[in-house]
Write a structure and sequence with these properties.
With 850 residues, this protein is an alpha+beta fold. The chain starts with a strand and ends with a strand. Mean pLDDT is 94; it is low at 82-90 and 263-271.
């Protein structure tokens, strides 16, 4: 669903911001909510009284003025957060809605929200307002252009359509609150390079203060006006005065106050905080449609690891946002954005339209698109050198689970395809800062950089996933020098599996099967081999063999392949029960715990205490004979990376069918779940683990067995599509998106351990899965083998270009939109074609197979 009305508007918060800049949420009714621009999350925070307003006048008489919002969707009892620094300002639950939401001003009765990320459109209409109004909001999102996709900015268009029989003068007013500390705010009108705007700053803060920064709001309209300040006064005087002024025809008059410098502790309350307004005017003939544009930017350059204890002595605890290295303040950024706004809009629109033309059901396109918003949320940061860093998700006011967590970001397939240089920067940081001398890799990266390693045991899926991702990232960019640079660390991380200093003895006997203690993304450990974690190991071995050949180590390549073959054989023979893959473990053997009782567990005083169930005489938190959603996930990663088979092909298909049969629930109304409630009542979804009636379920099973994780569901659905189980995969995606329909959950916030959760970007893998797309830029090889029959088209990308693959009437063509791609070998439904020294595909003309 891309169109939302009525009750579906309630939960919407559409993130608008750049990669690593933080964002502002556009609510379903048009409010600006969730102000997360201060280098940390800010769910449910508003910047009081900030809003857009529209007016209509004719012959010097006001016809109507109303806030560009729909009906209020919150609680009538109140409880809104009223500001970023200002506490609740005396408002809260039991006081009615906060006045700064602008609920008390006339607004629009009818609201329709259309969201196709990165664009959101809201159509407003009301019998009292002459004409129709549409608000469009976006931030540039351009594949391979990390610079322009990382602007700390929100772009708005207000489109007026005169549906009357007479000419009307329309105006749009954008009022912004200077959210910097009280009584030190300065709002400055500027006119420069064809724009009019307000630059907002504070006189109180030194440049190294964590709250130091600025805001800017401008318009490029030919006829514009600026009011630097609303009337400063207590009680309700400011809003009363503002409403009188906006209902007076013509521009708002200028109002200025002397710049004052007070200690930031001096609190002076202004009704309406400290607002400024930028307005734009248009004259429309009957039936005419025109728009005005606004750009809002923010600049808060100073970051710190507020979630950690103070950094080591001598290490600077602060660093600067990447955008602070390329812009000097919010006005500088706003002027850049205004100068390039038309091109940024067109390039972003081109990407959106190309993505939405992909031959997939609407729910799959929405899933792939909506979760791209995670890259524009407070979940992610760009460090001073531009490197990419991500939390797992967001709590209300802090990042949730630090450190670009490798076992979560394993699933996030949007970044490697759309911004491969940023994805590679994650490998760079991981292997530089998180690796122990013997090859153990911490699954969390500590900030500030140089703070030392995260002090916990290594994680199988995270560490082996790093090997697979390095191979994938190399193929997407083709940069052999980058691979050679990473290879010593990658090799060491792989060989840690059998390293004598591996305290968890993953594969101590080097038989290709992990039998030791295995930490994983569900936060505890498995004891004994499972296809789930061993699949990561097998895929890593296969990827490492390929990389070893490329860097000139054939002996290692042979060793890794032999180990892979041994492990694959044992996995297929010993961990497959005839229907699906399992974990082999003797739950009653406490000696497993005693032998591997090393290191502090996540819970409990030691391993035995954490895992032994004295009442039942069993090891806790295991899969045993259960059907696990990720039982063949190693095969999914391998398919997307072009690595070939990891498990027996027929057994893989049977395992995926079992996930659909046993784990997928069309309704959770009769399902037991003692854990976090991500699905309930008539929601559908895929449980992390379930046990068929004939299977013995552990007394206390895998930690999150009864939960559902969107990212794991997408991985499973995408893998089904890769293997030709299209209807099953599509149905699972339908059930996920039905949960996020706006009534109970935000369509642009597929949460897990926090909001805007990184794992949900597994949904982007639906695109290459349906196209059967793989690439190897080093060898200049591309492959498109669509899973759908008939005509197909879809978005594709790699590090050197992006565009659209089309298969129509039995012929393939590549339409490149940006960049250049050299092809020496192309595999498509018509066959495999080789082009000698290679040919170059450019945006100048489509490349057609003939």
């Amino acid at each position: 669903m891309s169109v939302y009305t009525g009750e579906q508007l309630r939960e919407i918060s559409f993130p608008i911001g750049g990669i690593g800049t933080g964002c502002i949420g556009l609510a379903g009714n048009g409010r600006l909510i969730d102000w997360e621009i201060l280098n940390r999350p800010g769910k449910m925070r508003c910047n009081g009284f900030t809003h857009l307003l529209v007016r209509a006048e004719r012959d010097g008489k006001m016809l109507d003025a109303r806030v560009l919002q729909g009906d209020y969707t919150g609680s009538g009892t109140g409880g809104e957060t009223t500001g970023i620094y200002r506490g609740n300002g005396g408002y809260g639950y039991g006081f009615g809605p906060y006045r700064g939401t602008m609920v008390g001003l006339p607004h629009f009765k009818n609201t329709v929200f259309s969201g196709e990320f990165p664009f959101a459109d809201i159509d407003f209409s009301d019998d009292c307002f002459p004409g129709r109004v549409t608000l469009r909001a976006f931030n540039p999102f351009i594949p391979l252009d990390a610079f322009d996709s990382s602007l700390p900015a929100a772009f708005f268009e207000v489109v007026f359509e005169n549906t009357t029989d007479e000419a009307i003068d329309y105006s749009a007013l954008f009022s912004l609150n200077n959210l910097l500390p009280f009584a030190t705010t300065v709002n400055e009108h500027f006119s420069e390079k064809g724009v009019e705007g307000i630059f907002m700053r504070s006189t109180a803060l030194p440049e190294d203060d964590m709250h130091y920064g600025s805001l800017c709001l401008l318009t490029s309209a030919e006829e514009a006006f600026v009011q630097e300040y609303w009337y400063r006064a207590p009680w309700f005087d400011s809003l009363e005065t503002y409403w009188r002024e906006v209902n007076t025809p013509g521009p708002l008059h200028e109002r200025a106050y002397a710049v004052e410098t007070r200690d930031r502790s001096e609190r002076i309350d202004f009704d309406g905080e400290d607002m400024g307004t930028v307005g734009a005017c248009l004259h429309l003939a009957p039936g005419e449609k025109k728009c005005v544009r606004f750009i809002m930017t923010w600049y808060f350059p100073n970051c710190a690891a507020y979630w950690n204890e103070p950094a080591d002595a001598g290490l600077d605890p602060q660093w600067r946002n990447w955008y602070a290295t390329v812009f000097k303040d919010a006005r500088d950024c706003a002027l850049y954005a205004a100068e390039h706004s038309h091109v940024l809009y067109l390039r972003t629109l081109d990407f959106k339209e190309t993505l939405y033309r992909t031959t997939l059901p609407a729910s799959c396109i929405e899933a792939a698109s909506a979760n791209l918003s995670i890259l524009k949320s407070a979940t992610v940061l760009r460090l001073e050198d531009g490197s990419f860093y991500g939390f797992e998700g967001c709590s209300a006011d802090s990042g949730c689970c630090e450190g670009s967590c490798s076992h979560v970001w394993n699933y996030a397939y949007a970044l490697p395809y759309l911004f491969p240089e940023l994805e590679r920067s994650m490998r760079d940081l991981e292997y530089r800062y998180s690796m122990r001398e013997d090859g153990s890799v911490s699954f969390r990266l500590k900030l500030p950089l140089g703070s030392g390693r995260f002090d916990f045991r290594a994680c199988v899926d995270g560490q082996m996933g790093g090997v697979i991702k390095t191979y994938r990232d190399f193929k997407l960019c083709g940069d052999i020098s980058w691979l050679r640079e990473k290879w010593p660390a990658v090799k060491k991380s792989l060989e840690f599996a059998w390293c004598p200093t591996n305290e968890d003895e993953w594969d101590a006997d080097m038989d290709g099967v992990m039998e030791g203690r295995q930490h994983h993304t569900l936060d505890m450990e498995l004891f004994g081999p499972s296809s789930w974690l061993n699949g990561f190991y097998l895929a890593a071995l296969k990827a490492a063999a390929e990389m070893a050949e490329l860097v000139g180590e054939p002996e290692n390549a042979e060793k890794y392949r032999a180990l892979f073959e041994r492990g694959k054989k044992k996995t297929d023979e010993e961990l497959y029960n005839g229907t699906y893959y399992i974990q082999r473990v003797d739950l009653r053997d406490s000696s497993l715990l005693e032998r591997l009782n090393r290191g502090k567990p996540l819970v409990g005083k030691d391993t035995v205490d954490a895992y032994w169930n004295e009442e039942t005489g069993e090891i806790k938190y295991q899969i045993a004979n259960g059907s696990c959603i990720d039982q063949v996930i190693g095969g999914w990663h391998a398919a997307l990376a072009g690595l070939g088979e990891i498990f027996d092909h027929e057994q893989t298909i049977s395992a995926l069918r079992s996930v659909y049969r046993y784990n997928y629930k069309k309704s959770f109304r009769n399902e037991f779940n003692p854990a976090r409630l991500y699905a309930y009542d008539d929601d559908g979804g895929v449980k992390i683990c379930d046990w068929p009636r004939e299977a013995v379920k552990p007394a206390i099973p895998l930690t999150y067995a009864n939960e559902i994780f969107c990212g794991m569901e997408y991985a499973s659905a995408s893998h089904m599509i890769c293997e030709g189980l299209l209807s099953e995969g599509f149905e699972i995606v339908d059930s996920i998106r039905a949960r996020f329909d706006g009534t109970r959950r935000n369509p642009w916030n597929e949460f897990e351990c926090g909001s805007n959760y990184a794992r949900s970007m597994a949904s982007f893998a639906l695109i290459p899965s349906i196209l059967g797309y793989t690439c190897d830029l080093y060898r200049a090889q591309l492959s498109f083998l669509p899973k759908e029959t008939g005509d197909v088209r879809g978005f594709f990308s790699c590090a050197s270009g992006w565009g659209e693959y089309v298969y129509e009437n039995g012929r393939s063509r590549i339409e490149l939109h940006e960049g250049r791609i050299r092809i020496s070998k192309l595999t498509v439904p018509e066959g495999t074609f080789e082009f000698g020294n290679g040919l170059e595909v450019t945006p100048d003309e489509a490349f057609i197979i003939s």
